[in-house]
Amino acid sequence: MRYLVTGGAGFVGSHVVLALLDAGHEVVVLDNLSTGHREAIPQSVPFHQIDLMDYDATRSVVAQHKWDGVLHFAALSLVGESVRAPFHYLRQNYLTGLNLIQACTEAGVKKLVFSSTSALFGGPERSEPIPEAALIEPGSPYGESKFLIERVLHWADSIYGLRSACLRYFNAAGADAEGRAGEDHRPETHLIPLTIDAVLGRRPPLKLFGTDYPTSDGSCVRDYIHVTDLADAHILALEQIETRSVTYNIGDGRGYSNFEVIQSIERVSGRKVPWEVAPRRQGDPAVLIADSTTLQKETGWKPKFGTLDQIVETAFRWRKAHPDGYGD
Q1: How many C-beta atoms surround the C-beta of residue 68 within 10 A?
Q2: Which residue among 40, 84, 124, 325 is least enclosed by CB atoms within 10 Å?
Q3: pLDDT tens profile 141-196
């Protein structure tokens, strides 16, 4: 099969590219490299440095081949930044997604997998773990921008027959077990790589944003999923949308607090993590845990990296081997 991957130079996108290649598929990557890294894309993979805001350029690439599917990862993705710059986030994520989806319908593409988010579920009143049918109440412009694209995909299916899989991630983490790819955001905002850099002495003490949440130890609780397990879910989702569109929440189904993440990194590294308390970040809910029952029942998906320590170990090993990320 031949697949187009937008945002394939980013963290999740680059791991999905590897999963597609490992499965024997042909892959082409489209990315503007605003946050991704050219070095994250295997040299054998054709690459187009294009911004999805440029509709003509986007349409030109999509029209080049007959694609068996498109996987869309390209987006701005920082919750806190979206609160500080809401219109930028809403405009950028919505228009780039809209441009891509329109280009796909014009080119006759029949399958699209969309990188959505658990940030759709930002409201204070909800159950844990969170099923797909939970109330959509984004707690940030970032979450809102992703929901807007889900609605565009609904109409693209209804009117043009573009079947889609909306995959609502919880917290992707870890690195490719073979060391081929890892996490390198600039600036880095994710807890596990920030904690690893702190324990390696590569940055100042870790800042814990809020220790007064209504949780067992006062810190936020999140559902962490290994990025390779997440990539596998995309492959399975492509099979599901042969005949219908689907929506899946993807997580491990277990929550780990920020303090438990620190303890895991201390176990894996054999070192103490320096940390200090900082004020809460706007838009951060206390708890986010996925109910992935539907995904598991319909696709047979099951995480291979079943513990937090396994996830942390791959991230720690990649960071030690690449202390400057893709910069080295």
Answers
A1: 15
A2: 124
A3: 999 999 999 999 999 999 999 999 999 999 999 999 999 999 999 999 999 999 99
Cα separation, 132 vs 255, whole angstroms: 17
Residues 2-172+226-250: name the CATH superfamily.
NAD(P)-binding Rossmann-like Domain (3.40.50.720)
Is-contact 217 277, C-beta < 8 A? no
Active-site residue flag, 224? no
Residue 157 backbone dihedrals phi, psi, to 5 degrees: -70, -50
**Sequence-ordered strand ranges (E) for the chain:** 2-6, 26-31, 47-49, 69-72, 111-117, 163-169, 171-173, 206-209, 221-222, 224-226, 246-250, 256-257, 275-278, 287-288
Residues 281 and 212 sit within 8 Å (Cβ to Cβ): no
Distance of CA 245 to CAs 49, 74, 112, Å? 29, 20, 9
Average pLDDT over residues 252-270: 97
Is 61 in contact with 99 (CB distance < 8 Å)? no
Catalytic one of 89, 94, 142, 256: 142
CA-closest candidate to residue 241, choices 68, 4, 16 = 68
CB-based burial, 193-215: b 16+ in 10 Å, e otherwise = bbbbbbbeeebeebebbbbebeb
Strands 2-6 and 287-288: unpaired
Q: Do residues 285 and 291 make contact, with C-beta atoms less than 8 angstroms apart? A: no
At 187, list the tokens. 């600036």
245 within 8 A of 274, measured Cβ to Cβ: no
The whole-angstrom separation of Cα 14 and Cα 180 is 9
Q: What is the 3-state secondary structure (H, E, C) of 269-309?
A: HCCCCCEEEECCCCCCCCEECECCHHHHHHHCCCCCCCCHH
* Domain regions of the chain by residue span: 2-172+226-250, 191-222+253-327
pLDDT band, residue 122 (cuts 50/70/90): confident
CATH 3.90.25.10 at 191-222+253-327, yes or no: yes
